[in-house]
């Protein structure tokens, strides 16, 4: 199947290959654009490896060193946050601007609340404020370590296919994500990601200021309903909250150019260039 996004992702990986490293006894993936100065760290959701942010990594890397990770095949939110500290210590990085999307957004919020001295700016994107009740819903209600992996992958495929049917303009993005769900994310890594959501902690209070917090959401996100989006905004008390009019659960893939400019402008790296307007596909709440 021809897919421009896959070709772009593969070309990106040729320039910035994912390397493997051990953090606290677990095998992680890492993309590191290198360089000196301030650092931006990306944390993916359930259906993404480190390279899922390929549309925004290079624009951000023109201004900052960028790190992006792929999660290991064991552990959960608390363990992974501690291992991210090990990563920063290993690289000699004192603070990061941190963006997590979906599962990654939950990890990012936990990390920022637990280790506030290591975060210069938190971007909580298309994410959750609480995991309460998630274990009662499929597929999380299954034993995620023993349920047939094909069954778990099939659940993702059904949801993604339904989204593509309702939004044919996003078909290429959905095909890209279907390949991730179908096996590009290895079985044990997939199980660990699902279990991390099922068994994740209650988020501690955040101590960030409005100037160091930003939320990002999509009005058409099929996974994060409006009340949860409002709860994320309330919890993070951001100085700025951006809403994509369209982009589903993956606006960084659907509108990578706007997404990258949003991040850089929020950090003062590029001028905003005027107010976000509806014809840009995003506005500030």
From TrEMBL:
Top-level taxon in the UniProt lineage: Bacteria
Keywords on record: Cytoplasm, Hydrolase
Gene Ontology molecular function, alphabetical: hydrolase activity
Keyword flag Transmembrane: no
Keyword Metal-binding: no
Any single Pfam family the record assigns to this protein: Abhydrolase_1
AB hydrolase-1 domain span: 39-136
Cellular compartments annotated: Cytoplasm
Name listed for the protein in its UniProt record: Maspardin
Organism: Pararhodobacter zhoushanensis
């Amino acid at each position: 199947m021809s897919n421009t996004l896959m070709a772009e992702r593969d070309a990106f990986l040729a320039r910035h290959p994912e390397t493997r490293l051990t953090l606290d006894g677990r095998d992680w993936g890492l993309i590191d654009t290198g360089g000196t100065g301030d650092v931006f760290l990306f944390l993916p959701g359930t259906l993404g490896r480190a390279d899922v942010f390929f549309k925004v990594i290079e624009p951000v890397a023109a201004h900052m060193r960028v790190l992006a990770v792929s999660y290991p095949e064991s552990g959960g939110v608390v363990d992974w946050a501690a291992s991210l500290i090990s990563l920063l210590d290993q690289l000699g990085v004192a603070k990061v601007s941190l963006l997590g999307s979906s599962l990654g957004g939950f990890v990012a919020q936990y990390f920022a609340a637990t280790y506030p001295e290591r975060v210069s700016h938190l971007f909580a994107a298309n994410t959750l404020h609480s995991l309460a009740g998630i274990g009662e819903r499929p597929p999380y209600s299954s034993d995620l370590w023993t349920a047939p992996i094909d069954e778990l992958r099939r659940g993702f495929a059904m949801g993604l296919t339904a989204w593509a049917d309702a939004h044919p303009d996003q078909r290429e993005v959905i095909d890209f994500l279907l390949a991730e769900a179908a096996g590009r994310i290895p079985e044990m890594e997939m199980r660990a990601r699902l279990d991390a959501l099922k068994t994740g902690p209650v988020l501690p209070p955040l101590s960030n200021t409005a100037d160091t917090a930003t939320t990002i959401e999509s009005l058409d996100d099929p996974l994060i309903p409006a009340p949860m989006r409002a709860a994320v905004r309330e919890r993070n008390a951001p100085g700025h909250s951006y809403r994509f009019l369209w982009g589903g659960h993956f606006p960084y893939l659907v509108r990578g150019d706007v997404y990258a400019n949003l991040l850089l402008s929020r950090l003062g790296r590029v001028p905003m260039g005027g107010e976000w307007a509806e014809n840009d596909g995003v506005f500030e709440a």
